[in-house]
Amino acid sequence: MSSKRLRAAVVGASGYAGSELVRLLLDHPSVEPSIVTSGRSAGKRLTDECPWLYTDLVLSPFEPTSLEVDVVFLAQESGFAMDHAPGLAKRCKVVDLSADFRLSDLDVYRSTYKIEHRAPGTTASYGLPELVARDGIAGASLVANPGCYPTATLLALMPLVRAGVIGGVPIVDAKSGVSGAGRSRQETDYLFTEITGGFKAYAAVGHRHTPEIEQMTGAPVRFTPHLLPTARGLQATVHVPVKTSLAELKTIFQEAYAGERFIRIVEQPPSTKQVVGSNRCDIYVGFDERTQMSLVISVIDNLVKGAAGQAIQNMNIMLGLDEDAGLPLHGVWP
Amino acid sequence: MSSKRLRAAVVGASGYAGSELVRLLLDHPSVEPSIVTSGRSAGKRLTDECPWLYTDLVLSPFEPTSLEVDVVFLAQESGFAMDHAPGLAKRCKVVDLSADFRLSDLDVYRSTYKIEHRAPGTTASYGLPELVARDGIAGASLVANPGCYPTATLLALMPLVRAGVIGGVPIVDAKSGVSGAGRSRQETDYLFTEITGGFKAYAAVGHRHTPEIEQMTGAPVRFTPHLLPTARGLQATVHVPVKTSLAELKTIFQEAYAGERFIRIVEQPPSTKQVVGSNRCDIYVGFDERTQMSLVISVIDNLVKGAAGQAIQNMNIMLGLDEDAGLPLHGVWP
Amino acid sequence: MSSKRLRAAVVGASGYAGSELVRLLLDHPSVEPSIVTSGRSAGKRLTDECPWLYTDLVLSPFEPTSLEVDVVFLAQESGFAMDHAPGLAKRCKVVDLSADFRLSDLDVYRSTYKIEHRAPGTTASYGLPELVARDGIAGASLVANPGCYPTATLLALMPLVRAGVIGGVPIVDAKSGVSGAGRSRQETDYLFTEITGGFKAYAAVGHRHTPEIEQMTGAPVRFTPHLLPTARGLQATVHVPVKTSLAELKTIFQEAYAGERFIRIVEQPPSTKQVVGSNRCDIYVGFDERTQMSLVISVIDNLVKGAAGQAIQNMNIMLGLDEDAGLPLHGVWP
Amino acid sequence: MSSKRLRAAVVGASGYAGSELVRLLLDHPSVEPSIVTSGRSAGKRLTDECPWLYTDLVLSPFEPTSLEVDVVFLAQESGFAMDHAPGLAKRCKVVDLSADFRLSDLDVYRSTYKIEHRAPGTTASYGLPELVARDGIAGASLVANPGCYPTATLLALMPLVRAGVIGGVPIVDAKSGVSGAGRSRQETDYLFTEITGGFKAYAAVGHRHTPEIEQMTGAPVRFTPHLLPTARGLQATVHVPVKTSLAELKTIFQEAYAGERFIRIVEQPPSTKQVVGSNRCDIYVGFDERTQMSLVISVIDNLVKGAAGQAIQNMNIMLGLDEDAGLPLHGVWP
Questions:
Q1: Interface predicted TM-score of the whole assembly (ipTM), two decimals
Q2: Per-residue pLDDT tens for C147-187?
Q3: Least CB–CB distance from C192: residue in A16, A184, A192
Q4: If you average pLDDT over residues D177-188, what whole number do you get?
Q5: Which residue of C has its CA nearest to A227?
């Protein structure tokens, strides 16, 4: 611990993404979570809100002008970062976990999030390291951390897009654990009693992550999200008409992710559970000859590779640290 | 209870489908579960194996020649019914819950179940009442009760097939609770610890329910099953390229199921949980204009409409009783 | 259904106890749920709020003066019934599921529920049929339906109290599914994500059900409730120092509950799951010779025998119907 | 990783305790899991059996004479270690996770585990560091790692025993996640379908962990275990008649555990979930004046502080490393 010399602030530290950031940073070899903020709970100990953590940190209000840190993580609802990220990015590295800087077309942002963008000129790098040029992340002051659904979907889909083998509209049947909804959604729909023992689709047509996915694929995608009765874990089952063979498909994925520490091509359909707590994305590649349809299944922990872990991966790249520093590789099972 | 005058036998009464049959029959107005059999547990009280039931029934061995009942339910693994159903069907009504008599093409049966069919000349009626001619069920001595996946899939898909609006290969992304695997699958994969908190696909290409589905659709279907961390409940999310509109789609379904007591067209994507314990199938109809893709979601309780409930529905038709006698309409929630 | 001739009103029909009342009444042979009310959702169809039900009922506002029914169920928070039950009870039978009329000592009521009682002169019968004189219930206009914890605890404890074998303070270590908290508790603590995979005690000292228990036992009880990561089900593990033997203990319970249709003495520690959906209470009786301590374990479905089912059992007695009319005996498993 | 210089063997690496040992050792700063063995799966990659891990390790058969390591963890059923630990302990450090060396009275061992002890003269140190002299562990060749129930129970109970304030038989009402049963218990009782949504006691009188607890308390304890529908997590709710006050109780615990990194006294009843993945034991201290009964609640992760984590804690002490090296402090939530 004594060797830690970089300081981080986590804005929104008592939410699920925020507290996961704190958890991972507390064990990070080079970066310390020095400041943790909360709108509602400023003044309380962090452990009052998050008794699973083991720390003396006290929650403070968010005071952007007095933040003296090397990196700021913004883990708030969309609409918050646009007011603060541009200013902060002049003084330190910023990773925004909301949607505010993910979409380059602000008309799409407005129609998707029902908010007028108030920082239209700001440049951000899209932080999906395995699929973008890492130089862009390394040189950026502000990184837009991808959404959980787009992360899993794009990791399963982009190798096919880039290989040029897609012969029709990809159908993404995605399933997420409930923590994706956040910790402050105190609605009947998210009560334990309503979720346990059940499974359902939601936002069945027109989910707001669709534009983020299509911005990278450059072509329409049919995206349907479902809610799993689990806390963590996200699977994208991607059905794509392709003109190819199983052998070629496997080669496409192996080459696309050669040397990627957090991507693993697996031989059996993976359980979401095998990546819980890990920054990995496990990918299964299948092919049905009868229907000429490929089946690519990716699993991530929506709070790690789908949020806090990927944010730290981006931070590592931005700060010139080892890309995998402080990031768990193993899932917690059972 | 005193008015009960018909007698039923449940063969395999301590499994999940069998014990669900007993549970429903114990509350049935006209039919009594008089004989309950078990290979492993003959001689024990049924409640020793199934403490959730409230009955004095004792498990007996299966002795087909001495069964004096009005109807026999065969709730055993595939390969059992083919040896016994033909003989039993000469003396009483028989509902077989296995796959033995579902497929009319015995070559397909052999390649799917890896068993040579030993009763090739036997005629059975496929018992999916909402999609077949009920006269066939009413007049049959032997009914093949459909699989749980085919039930949910076909109820979501056949109205589109019959309306002639399908413009490509349907993609069925299906999810089932674990009870579909049965009670005797004592394998690591089905332990509580391996399943809870996770979700995965299995038999990702080539699941054995595919031929049963295609036998009715008459065209290829891309079918992928997944395992939900729930005991009961099954959802089929059916993605179909269509040449139509949302309004026409809804009309197709409303007309297809007009007057059907167990089918309900719903306005919100349904949770599997809302049909747990019920013989209903709730169906949601959606359409994505951008991709010209319809999204039909059906939910059933795999042990009720997907097994024991549908078996009793078939029995009611075969015995000339009210089709909904003894069948729960409401789900058990929360 | 055509033979139904009695009418019931359910006040608070979209909550968990209320909707369970409606579910059971829809299948009751003699009583129809004619009026269903909701404060927040009046005007909506009941199925909009409760999609697991299958009914055309529409939620109405609560208008006590115009209720023309044979029985009213009040399924509201404590503090509501005291204003309405006395007036209603002059015109029809009333079963109150809140705590308002459970405690005869109004000072205890005040200190427990932090509400001044506004109907101090009202007489109600405590509706735990297996432990009180049924004549009292049969003749009452107003029945106070017991709490879920007191129901399970008293059924496990009172035979020992009445047999006079208790030699010390009973320790009740109780565990309840989350539905006991109700459907309108939209607090972080009851989110799926906070509950799943965990277990904890709450109100560890001084839970408000303690006085209700002690009112019947007449002596102090040490009561600790815990929250199970299940929707339904409640277990009371009751540790009691006794001067007796295992054989005598079993006799005490068998005699206490001889002829009771909803109580079953079982030979193995029961799972809460075996009574889910049922109005049964299964009781296991154990004894540890080394420490001269008896171990009595009772399980109920907190929404059935612990709320709606027991309320209907009381209604049946009040209206002169068969005590078990419309009440499920079997659990729903798996 | 390059600085790792000590080698460990994990015998039984594909079970739950074994694979958790591997997971923690893979991230340990000084010790490498060099050899991983499995009886059934020798020759397979560890990730074939444990896809949540990220490693190239291959499972080998257990060959005790050729093990060239600094420490061996034996994670096998009781009855295995007694044959191998004495020989191994002459050449390296040994931590046994079974019951073989926990009980000093071999008559008690025989009557509890139904096995004749075949290594009666072997000396082992009981490895519960917070409650025994650490010198004993540091100097031992063989450490008996405590059971999960005794760990949680004794951490909650021993401060009261040592303070001399206990005035009657302690009642330990304990609840464990299902992983405590191990990964090879392929019995109906441990299927997902049988466990989910339920809760029950087992071995209600006479559980085999009772003697291990009483060996340290020196007085009878009434111990009742229950099975939680969770994978991990264990709670001991300890009810003890005491002659003292709440203030004194809190002081007793604060003094007993002053400076202990893995013990935290908490102000609210803890959820088992807040220690999942962590080597912590969180303890809540309550007191009921009316009944003069203290209520002490401890929570641990049964696979970490209750098994693999405590084994590594013992290893750290035995090898002269920092006691908390490689041991997670934070829980994984939600």
A1: 0.96
A2: 999 999 999 999 999 999 999 999 999 999 999 999 998 78
A3: A192
A4: 92
A5: C192
Identify the contact set of chain A against chain C, taking CB-CB distances under 8 A: 16, 177-179, 181, 183-188, 190-197, 229-231
Is residue A2 pLDDT above 80, yes or no?
no
Q: Kindly identify which residue of chain D lies nearest to residue A274, measuring between CA atoms.
A: D52
Instruction: Between B205 and C215, name the one with better pLDDT.
Output: C215
**Band of the pLDDT at A287, cuts 50, 70, 90?**
very high
Q: Which residue has the higher pLDDT, C208 or C150?
A: C150
The answer to whether the CB atoms of C196 and A194 lie below 8 A apart is no
Instruction: For residue C201, give both structure tokens.
Output: 């005690």
Say how far apart CA A204 and CA A200 lie, in whole Å. Answer: 10
Q: D191 and B196: CB-CB below 8 Å?
A: no
β-pair type (C93-96, B6-11): unpaired
Would you call A193 and C186 a contact, using CB atoms and an 8 Å cutoff? no
Residues 6+ apart with CB under 8 A from D23: A330, A332, D52, D53, D308
Q: What is the pLDDT of residue C1?
A: 43
**Pair of tokens at residue D300:** 């641990």
CATH number corresponding to D148-302: 3.30.360.10
Given the residues D50, D92, D148, D281, select the one marked as catalytic: D148
Same fold, C6-146+305-318 and C148-302: no
Pick the residue from chain B with its C-alpha nearest to A296: B204
pLDDT at B4: 84
Is the pTM for the entire model greater than 0.90?
A: yes
Catalytic annotation present for D148: yes
Q: State pLDDT tens for residues D245-283.
A: 999 999 999 999 999 999 999 999 999 999 999 999 999
A6-146+305-319: CATH topology is Rossmann fold (3.40.50)
Alpha helix segments (H runs only) across chain A = 16-26, 46-49, 81-88, 106-113, 134-139, 148-163, 192-195, 210-217, 246-256, 309-319
Catalytic positions of A, written as ranges: 148
User: pLDDT band at residue B60, thresholds of 50, 70 and 90?
Assistant: very high
Q: Per-domain residue ranges for chain D?
A: 6-146+305-318, 148-302
Interface residue ranges in chain D relative to chain B, Cβ cutoff 8 Å = 16, 177-179, 181, 183-188, 190-197, 229-231
How far apart (Å, rounded) are the C-alpha atoms in residues A21 and A75? Answer: 9
Q: Does domain C6-146+305-318 have CATH number 3.40.50.720?
A: yes
Contacts of B210 (CB under 8 A, 6+ apart): B221, B223
User: Looking at CA atoms only, how far is residue A85 from chain C in angstroms?
Assistant: 29
Q: Which residue is listed with tokens 């699929």? A: A131
Which of B200, B206, B237 shows the shortest C-beta gap to A201? Answer: B237
